[in-house]
Write a structure and sequence with these properties.
single chain; mainly beta; Neuraminidase; five-stranded mixed beta sheet; about 0% helix; globular
């Protein structure tokens, strides 16, 4: 692990609509604070469906996983157990179960309102995430019907980390594997074709970068978070890592970077699960004018090896 592989983090250059304002020199990053109950993000039980679009409901076994997509202040979509899809239009007070397309054990979702969205069904990854197949479906009627898309431009290489659509045509997919360059792909036609990526991160050449997450604001501002080892030292007893964000206001022409971790953490003390593992409680979302990053840091105590932190980013 101490031998660092040179990796590049890349993003497709194709513009996501018209450029907004010129990029700021740095992002405003709020102080990171631990989330009060980190396990809730990955073990949330199915919402209670007050009404249902399906003929009948069955119980969801626990523990299980849930993914959320919240395109507005009131609309929330929840994919539970990678098979059950729910919609709330009142900030989660009530839920309606919708019909998803045929899904696999791993799925990504992104919705832009209460009726239009995408679900990506992912194949089983090969060793070290060298390959993972990607299939994309689209709905424009809140899941009543789903259309499988013929996708070009996203190769089988790497595991696909997350999916983010800004509107009906512009979207992003992040992918990584830990041994080759993390990448982010961009579409401008609703997910049918994806453009060739280019480098966006500020990680020094020859330094490992990994686990990207991508999101886009309604105004077109794009952000990518990632870890890297630029502050590591020759000390064989530590492997120092940090979390960073880059953001662009002009369709990817220029990028600015900010550090999210207040100080480096020792990745060597992370739990070991087929490699050093920070966990799944991390990602990037947004409100109307700011991003919200969720990331993991290790602790000094081996009794509590990691904690989850959330930071607001105002580009």
């Amino acid at each position: 692990m101490k031998r660092l592989t040179a990796l590049l983090l890349v993003l497709a250059l194709a513009a996501c609509g018209s450029p907004a304002a010129a990029p700021s020199a740095s992002a405003s990053v709020a102080a990171a604070s631990p989330t009060p109950t980190p396990t809730a993000a990955a073990t949330t039980p199915a919402p209670t469906a007050t009404t249902s679009a399906l003929a009948s409901a069955t119980l969801i076994p626990l523990p299980n996983v849930a993914q959320l997509s919240a395109p507005s202040a009131t609309v929330v979509w929840a994919l539970v157990a990678n098979t059950r899809l729910f919609l709330s239009t009142d900030r989660g007070d009530t839920w309606k179960e919708q019909k998803p397309p045929a899904l696999t054990s791993t799925t990504l979702l992104s919705f832009i309102d209460d009726h239009e969205g995408w679900l990506a069904a992912l194949g089983a990854p090969t060793a070290s995430c060298q390959t993972q197949l990607f299939a994309l479906s689209h709905t424009a009627d809140a899941g009543a019907t789903w259309s499988p898309l013929t996708v070009t431009g996203i190769p089988p290489a790497q595991c696909k980390n997350n999916l983010a659509f800004r509107d009906a045509t512009n979207g992003l997919v992040a992918a990584s594997d830990g041994t080759t360059a993390p990448v982010v792909y961009r579409t401008t036609d609703g997910g049918r074709t994806w453009s060739v990526p280019v480098k966006v991160n500020k990680t020094p050449n020859g330094t490992l970068a990994f686990t990207p997450a991508v999101d886009v604001l309604p105004n077109g501002t794009v952000a990518v978070t990632y870890y890297d080892l630029r502050h590591n030292t020759p000390n064989p007893n530590t492997l120092l890592a940090d979390n960073f964000v880059v953001h662009s206001h002009n369709g990817g022409q220029t990028w600015s970077e900010a550090r999210l971790t207040p100080h480096s953490f020792n990745l060597d003390t992370a739990p070991f699960a087929r490699g050093l593992f920070l966990g799944d409680y991390q990602g990037l979302a947004h409100t109307t004018g700011a991003f919200q990053a969720l990331f993991v840091r290790t602790n000094n105590s081996l009794n509590n090896r990691t904690d989850v932190f959330s930071t607001r980013i105002t580009p």
